[in-house]
Amino acid sequence: MSPPVLLSARALSAGYRDGAGTRQILADVDLDLPENRIVGLAGESGCGKSTLALAMAGYRPPGLRLLGGSVTFRGQTITGRSARQLRRYWGRHIAYLPQDTATALNPALRVGRQIAEVFQLHKGLGRRDALAAGADMLGRVGIGDPERAMHRYPHEFSGGQQQRIAIAIALGPGPEVVILDEPTTGLDVTVQALVNTLIVDLIRAERMTALYVSHNLALLAVLCDELRILYAGQVVEAGSAEQVYFTPEHPYTRDLVAAVPHHLDDKPVRGIGGTPPQSVVLDSCAFGPRCGFRTQACAVPVPLAIRPNGREVRCVRAGEPALAKGRTTDLATANGASAGLPSAAGPPPVLAATGVSVSYTHAGRSMTALDDLTLTIGPGEVVGVVGESGSGKSTLLRALAGLLVPRAGTLEVNGAVVPWPSGRRSQDIRREIQIVFQNPDASLNPRQSVGAILDHPLRKFRPGLDRDQRAHRIREVFGQLRLSPDLLERYPAALSGGQRQRVALARALVADPAVVLCDEITSALDVSVQASILELLGELRRASGLAMIFVTHDLGVLRAVADRALVLEAGHVRETGVVSQLLETPRHAYTATLVRSIPDPAAHHAEQHPGGSDETRVPRRLRGGPRPDGLRAGDAGRGRCRAGRRPLRHRRGADRQGRRGAGGVAGVDAAHRPRGAGRADRV
Amino acid sequence: MKAIRRFLAIPPGLAGTIGLLVILAISLIGPAVAPYNPDASVAAPALGPSAAHLLGTDLLGRDVWSRFLCGGLSVIVLPLIAVSGALVIGCAAGLLSGYLGGWVDTIVTRTVDIVLALPPFLLVLVIIAGFGTGGSVIVIAVAAVYAPSITRVIRSATQAIRPREFVLVARARGDSVRWITLREIAPNIVPTLLVEVAIRLTFAVMFIASLSFLGLGVQPPSPNWGVMVAENRDLLFSYPLPVLVPAIAIAVLAISVNLIADALTIFFGGGRQGQMR
Question: What string of DSSP letters covers A383-439?
Answer without folding.
Answer: EEEE--TTSSHHHHHHHHTTSS--SEEEEEETTEEE-SSGGGS-HHHHHHEEEE-S-
